[in-house]
Design a protein that fits this description.
By secondary structure, the protein is of the alpha/beta class. Among the domains are: 2-129 and 434-564, 3-Layer(aba) Sandwich (Rossmann fold); 199-333. It has helices at 35-45, 74-79, 113-123, 133-136, 141-148, 152-175, 179-199, 205-217, 219-234, 242-255, 262-291, 298-316, 319-337, 339-385, 429-432, 435-449, 469-482, 495-498, 525-537, 543-564; strands at residues 2-10, 13-19, 24-28, 61-69, 89-97, 102-106, 109-111, 124-127, 392-399, 412-419, 427-428, 457-461, 488-491, 503-512, 515-522. The strands form 3 sheets. Strands 2-1-4-5-6-7 form a 6-stranded antiparallel beta sheet, covered by helices on one side. A 6-stranded mixed beta sheet has the order 8-12-13-3-14-15. Strands 9-10-11 form a 3-stranded antiparallel beta sheet. The radius of gyration is 43 Å and the shape is elongated.
Length: 565
């Protein structure tokens, strides 16, 4: 929902803040006061085309800011890394300079005009003299038809088969590489497999060998230190070792225990523990010294093996990564060498997938053609009530121009065609319909669809062109009906439409110091009576006109009450 529109220096509007409400928001005013400028501002802030002419005379730049509180646009926001604020609101802004350049922002961050246009299409659906985005987008016509017929299950069923077909096709294309390229790939894979297998990699081996090499490299220094320490503990030809000295001390104290108290008993036990500990250390030193004995060629062999492992590491990563690469290479090599058999199987699978896709597409197409006639009649009936009795509306089907005659939407291309006058051949809506006709066609379409698909606000400008009397009343009723499920904004000259408003804004123009200024204000009950009276009878508002306006407003409230119930 559009909550707020702030406009500065757009044409005759110097500054305006409009707080829109849920339901039907109507904007009225005298011709030339700037009603359509509000629509132009909405178009600009949602990425529509702009020019320097939009900037108010004498101003350096113009700007429009809009605040939306809605679930619409969430897909775009997520895709582009944006989030609504803590209140769930999205702020979009556009500044247009007098030289024609513009700056677009979403929640304060700059975006391109194309990005803003994508977001704007989700937030706002504008139909009028300058815009009719979704109706003119023929790629959306098929979506409208599927929505009308509730064909999502049939479409999903088709897409399940079609997506499988696409995956098989991609696999075929992947395997069907150039023969010379395939041979080069096979040779490379064979080389990699043989190289890794020849290396006979064992996880953790490089670390073990590196430790052993470091040990052997420093063997002389280590041997000298170990032998010196061993001799200090066990003694040598010219000295008595620490173990013997500790044993001697222990024996001396043991002999004196019968003359002593607890102190010598404790000292004797500790000396005994010390002797055993010294013996354990000396045994460990002897074992370690044995490890330092190696053959003359062992160090060279270690260095050679480490070179092999380091070469493998540089090319394929760690030992675990190299072994994983080996598995992948073996699998790819098997696949490449067996590609002809696999291709034959995939071709058969693809043919089966395509037959199934075409079968499901034909079922979907039949359903579409069945509902298209109902859609055509419903639209024609709606347009007749909207004072377009001579219009011809048809749903044209053509075969998909995609590969194999299938696309993500089936085997159909659908386009809405119309002729506005008797005897004319129906043609593309974009080439035949006027702004007012576009707005009424979209109004009819939305009423027939019941507001399906779109959750953004809808804007109608010139929807009342060429209608009056009962037809105008029908337009107002259909706008009110549409606004039950979504926010609708409408610029109008007709009292039959204005009385249906849930919120009514008056746009007034005045001249001060030779400059034109436009003001937008929300009308209360009394203001609405006066404005409806003016729309019905002109500037001279009589008591009778006010009474008539009150009656029209009361009748409109009664109609809306029935809609709510």
């Amino acid at each position: 929902m559009l909550k707020l529109l702030h406009i500065e220096n757009i044409a005759v509007i110097e500054k305006a803040d409009i707080e829109f409400a849920p339901g039907l928001n109507v904007l009225t005013g005298e011709t030339g006061t700037g009603k359509s400028i509000v629509i132009d501002a909405l178009s600009a802030v949602t990425g529509g085309r702009t020019s320097r002419d939009i900037v108010r005379t004498g101003a350096d730049n113009a700007s429009v800011t809009a605040v939306f509180s809605t679930s619409a646009g969430s897909a775009w926001l997520s895709k582009n890394g944006f989030e609504p604020d803590e209140e769930g609101e999205v702020f979009i802004a556009r500044k247009i300079s007098a030289d024609g350049k513009s700056v677009c922002r979403v929640n304060g961050a700059p975006v391109s005009a194309a990005q803003l246009r994508e977001l704007g299409a989700e937030l706002l659906d504008i139909h009028g003299q300058n815009d009719g985005r979704k109706l003119l987008d023929e790629s959306a016509h098929l979506t409208y038809l599927d929505s009308f017929g509730d064909l999502s299950d049939f479409l999903d069923n088709y897409r399940e088969s079609y997506e499988k077909q696409i995956k098989v096709k991609a696999e075929i294309e992947r395997l069907s590489t150039d023969e010379s390229e395939k041979e080069r790939r096979i040779e490379m894979l064979r080389y990699q497999v043989e190289e890794i297998e020849r290396a006979k990699i064992r996880p953790g081996e490089q670390s073990e060998l590196t430790s052993r090499r470091d040990l052997l490299t420093n063997a002389a220094k280590l041997t000298d230190a170990v032998e010196t320490a061993f001799e200090a503990l066990y003694g040598g030809d010219m000295s008595v070792g620490a173990i013997a000295q500790i044993g001697k001390a222990h024996d001396c104290l043991s002999g004196a225990l019968r003359y002593s108290d607890v102190f010598l008993q404790d000292a004797c036990e500790r000396l005994n523990d010390l002797r055993y500990a010294a013996q354990d250390i000396s045994d460990n030193l002897r074992d370690f010294r044995a490890e330092l004995e190696f053959s003359p060629g062992e160090l060279d062999e270690l260095e050679a093996r480490l070179d092999v492992l380091k070469r493998i590491e540089r090319k394929y990563g760690s030992e675990d990564e190299a072994l994983e690469h080996l598995k992948r290479a073996e699998a790819e090599l098997f696949e490449a060498e067996d590609s002809e058999n696999m291709l034959a199987k995939l071709e058969i699978e693809f043919d089966n997938c395509m037959r199934e896709s075409k079968k499901r597409a034909e079922t979907l197409s039949k359903k579409r053609k069945d509902v298209s006639e109902s859609l055509r009649k419903r639209i024609m009936d709606e347009l007749s009530q909207l004072n377009m009795p001579s219009v011809v509306f048809i749903v044209e089907f053509s075969a998909s121009r995609s590969e194999y005659g299938l696309s993500g939407n089936g085997c159909d291309e659908v386009r809405f065609l119309m002729s506005a006058n008797p005897g004319e051949t129906p043609g593309r809506i974009s080439r035949i319909a006027s702004g007012g006709e576009l707005a009424r066609i979209m109004l009819a379409l939305k009423n027939v669809l019941g507001g399906k698909n779109d959750s953004g606000a809808m804007v109608f400008d010139e929807v009342d062109t060429g209608v009056s009397g009962i037809a105008a009343q029908r337009v107002g009723e259909k706008l009110a009906k549409l606004a039950r499920g979504r926010q609708v904004l409408c610029v109008t000259h007709l009292p039959q439409i204005a009385v249906m408003a849930d919120t009514h804004f008056e746009i007034r123009k005045n001249i001060k110091d030779g400059r034109t200024y436009t003001h937008v204000s929300e009308l209360d009950v009394g203001g609405r009576k006066k404005e409806v009276a003016r729309l019905s009878g002109g500037e001279n508002i009589t008591a009778t006109a006010l009474t008539s306006a009150a009656e029209q407003l009361a009748a409109a409230e009664e109609y809306k009450s029935k809609l709510r119930n």
